[in-house]
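Example A, followed by Example B.
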Amino acid sequence: MSSISRPQTTLFMLISVDGKISTGSVNNRDVDKDYKEITGVKEGLKQYYDLEKQTDKYSLNTGKVMAKIGVNSDDSPIKAPEVNFIIIDNNHLTEKGILNLCNNLNELILITHNKNHPANNVLFNNLKIINYENEIDFVDLFSKLKNEYNIQKITLQSGGSLNSILLRNNLVDRVSLVVAPCLIGGKDTPTLIDGKSIITNEELKNIKALKLIRADILNDSYLHLEYEVINI
């Protein structure tokens, strides 16, 4: 773990064998929806959701992912009254989406640098907003989450771009992966870690070594792999 006082974090994701976290490059492609239609994949999918129920009570995600799964619609797909969400968002969530989340979660902590974010129009006791001036300082944010909000553990379930930012800032301690038995492909399809590609020798320090701490063979050719991230 890095030297700052912050929560212990675990990146928990469902991936394909080739590391994809979506089934395509457009918003209507989604593993939660599409895997249910694929013979040889759909049979073991429930194991991922069973493991997801065992993750930390604080889950960090993005407004983009929330919008993609439909929280801005009239009927929110999120029904988790015991779970707390930390959502990074500037322009994907609507006021209706914020209301849906507040009505279906124990607590919502919204992180933004949009001064006009629609969350400012929502008055709920379980909504907290952390504002940044120009861009979100994730090292500062994680320090705040522990020292001001007393959050000890967070499960990270964000997209590949944010995962890259967190990993390269030494903010990921463990990786817990459920591997679905499929190959998806597509150079524009999101992967577990996206973001800026490594070019120079100096940037090789951004490659994080992992120590395997658990490997379970699940039913229907699924795997569950757990790693410790070696943050140097």
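Example B, a separate protein, is given below in the same form.
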Amino acid sequence: MERTRRITLLLAVCILAVSSCAWAQDAGMVLGTSVGYNTQRLSLPLSDEQKKQAEQFGQEAQQENRAGHYGEAMRRYHEGTAAMHAVAWTPQVELASALQGHLDHAMLEPGKRVTISLTALYSVDAAASSKDKVSAAVFLVAAARGGRGGGGADTGDTPSKNLAASAPIDASHLPFTAQVTVPDAAPGDYNLEVRLTLADGSWPAGLRAAFVKALPIHIEDLSADAGRLRQRLAKFSKSDAPTLATAQFVLARYEQSDEGKASPAHYNFRGEFATANTILDALDAGKDPLAGKRGDMRRAYLSKADQTLQPYRIFIPTQYDGSKPTPLLVALHGMGGDENGMFDGYHEALKVEAQRVGFIVACPKGREPTSMYRGTAEQDVMDVIAEVRRDYKVDPSRIYLMGHSMGGYGTWSTAIDHPEVFAAIGPISGGGNAAGMEKIKNIPEYVVHGDDDRTVNVNMSRTMVAAGKKLGAPITYVEVPGGSHGGVAEPNFAPMLDFFAKQVKAQAAP
């Protein structure tokens, strides 16, 4: 029971944090919410009536989504979540669930004022909700340091500081705004939590994600560093240097984080400003900024698809010396994550195993949180491969692709679209279009799924594996008895990379 409660809470908090930071009112927001909703539906100990209600609300949400009524789809999911937690769908609960938080700035220094706004994703009954008002107070909470991809979230036990006293929200006069002053706090990642309460000062058990809007911020005086880098980049003459994009992205990431378009969490801005200046120093001196660099690094490139700077993480094993072709592994993160998830999550096991077998590893960013690696997100995967092949001596006959969850879906779809590139693939807890297996029937696969996966049903992998084996595909399928959605990934990194190490493509891509 405790395990189920913890998994449900982490999913709900994670989805809320992403939506508060980056998602607009669109199909991506609905897709991301549906994942957490269905995981709760399959994990919570529900009565028969609750199961029926949850199923009905889920179906109605999908109908609204298909019609393009994204706000109404969110309402159905929120009402279904309340039903699963045996909470009455009162006007006050509806209002709290509808509200979405925004900041005018997220990169803050002590003493700076920040404005918090709450807007509604869908219309609410203002007259009914005004009878027993919902109130909002603002707290500063240090961000949890849980590993990306492997879980981790603020569960409410982290020490907090009250920045704004409770104030009633008038649903007829939205957006609700509040201004707070950033206190003198140690540099680092925090959340501004807007905690909503009912008239009695409480919130319903099980609906913390609806009543606590966690807005990521970073407290540190970085404006001077950003200003100096901005001035230097504006004057930089060697605009054709490929590594320049990495320095440019540091400033772009700072600005995106400040605008709420990217989470500032887990990003060492001061260190990355220093790295950007080191790159510019090397380019000014006519030197290669990458020469001799090993280990885990952040990189970026200019996408030809839309002229945007796109980040990726790369790991270069210590044994790499450029004298012989080296295997390249491309790893795709899950929904709601980014280029950091595969490296920072799973107790950083992927880098450990890559060092052991001597693989270069590259982790692209999957564009929007729910891109499913389609369109430009898939192109990013191929572009990152091209970037790494330009900068390092990669063995074209030993390029591998793996991913977890949404990354598992992306592994299959990208390989199906580009079968000439990959020597082997490793989808974990994913799925895909079985009709496409004909295109990759000659590519070895190491497929992993848990039979107790309540986020992506195990039948998604079973269907793909059955279709592949019918075509004679060389598939190793690892179905973990009792395995959960996230728990099966890390233990299978080592055997998967050992499997990859034995695979060589007969005809390498040019």
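On Example B: The chain has 16 helices and 16 strands.
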